[in-house]
Amino acid sequence: EVQLSESGGGLVQPGGSLRLSCAASGFTFSSYGIYWVRQAPGKGLEWVSAISGSGDNTYYADSVKGRFTISRDNSKNTLYLQMNSLRADDTAVYYCAKTWYMDVWGKGTTVTVSS
Amino acid sequence: EIVMTQSPAALSVSPGERVTLSCRASQSVSSNLAWYQQTPGQAPRLLIYDASTRATGIPARFSGSGSGTEFTLTISSLQSEDFAVYYCQQYNNWPRTFGQGTKVEIK
Fold this sequence. Notes:
- In chain A, the strands form two sheets. In chain A, strands 2, 4, 5, 6, 9, 10 and 11 form a seven-stranded mixed beta sheet that branches. A four-stranded antiparallel beta sheet of chain A has the order 1-3-8-7, with no helix packed on it.
- Chain A is 0% helix and 50% strand.
- Chain A has strands at residues 3-7, 10-12, 18-25, 34-39, 45-51, 58-60, 68-73, 78-83, 92-98, 104-105, 109-113.
- Helices cover 0% and strands 50% of the residues of chain B.
- Chain B has no helices and eleven strands.
- Chain B has strands spanning 4-7, 10-13, 19-25, 33-38, 45-49, 53-54, 62-67, 70-75, 85-90, 97-98, 102-106.
- In chain B, strand 9 and strand 10 form a beta hairpin.
- The A-B interface holds A 35, 37, 44-47, 50, 59-62, 95, 97, 100-108 and B 32, 34, 36, 38, 43-46, 49-50, 55-56, 85, 87, 89, 91, 94-101.
């Protein structure tokens, strides 16, 4: 079964850092681009970042550029999102999703930025 | 950035009715458009990709059409499990962008 599972969320103070992970199984991880998508409480979906299957190409929303870094370890079938300089408006459920039309999603991990 | 605009924002529908949701792109996205369904507390689920291809396991009552800037998701006969929020998303250009969503509620 194709699965994605996020972890690493939690409560962090403004200005702090957090690293999210997304563990993949059931497919050839290195063959697919992967996204991070977030959803603030009561709001719609917002694309955050993406990385190609090889990891050579990365993409970011303007709202996180310079603060977040996406990476992947294809030997571990794992995607990462390093989040620095966190702000209150980064509070959201963070999902990872497989391939460019997001055919598989994880259940999400919650990030709360608050003092 | 391509802006995706969905209409209506919300609608109330009776079970068994036909529903048509619209999504408009601010510039052409070719057929690189997907539709997702999200129920409360759940992750989104892919319904349609490439504007008109049903994802694996999606019932035939869901259909998508359109290309360029105008797209439609049709649910031929609404079932109780279809009451949810629906999002369109373009994957033709960076940054990827979603519509604001259409909430389908029980009448």
